[in-house]
Design goal:
The chain has about 90 residues and is of the alpha+beta class. The protein contains two helices and five strands, in the order H-E-E-H-E-E-E.
Length: about 90
């Protein structure tokens, strides 16, 4: 991936695109953590715009029987990026 493409992909999304959801359990003071996120469609649209719809793909696979832990694989212009995550939700 060249530097120009990498810079465009790293650009922050506009603040209006941010959404929030509660995270964790309330503390002793009753407050709860707000987690910011963007909709996956926004990421897909950006990838389509910058590298082209045929030049990236995403796949995931469960790592546990209950599906709470998953491994995601993003390929952009033939370069594979992978990460794993786990849900804390019951």
């Amino acid at each position: 991936m060249n530097n120009e493409i990498a810079e465009k992909l790293r650009e922050p999304f506009p603040p209006d695109d941010l959404q929030f959801r509660p995270g964790g359990k309330p503390g002793q003071d009753g407050r709860i953590l707000a987690l910011a996120y963007i909709d996956a469609r926004m990421v897909m649209d950006r990838l389509d715009e910058i590298v082209g719809p045929g030049n990236w793909s995403y796949d995931w696979e469960p790592m546990t029987f209950d599906g709470k832990a998953v491994k995601g694989k993003l390929t952009v212009n033939g370069v594979l990026y992978a990460d794993a995550g786990e849900s804390e939700r019951e």
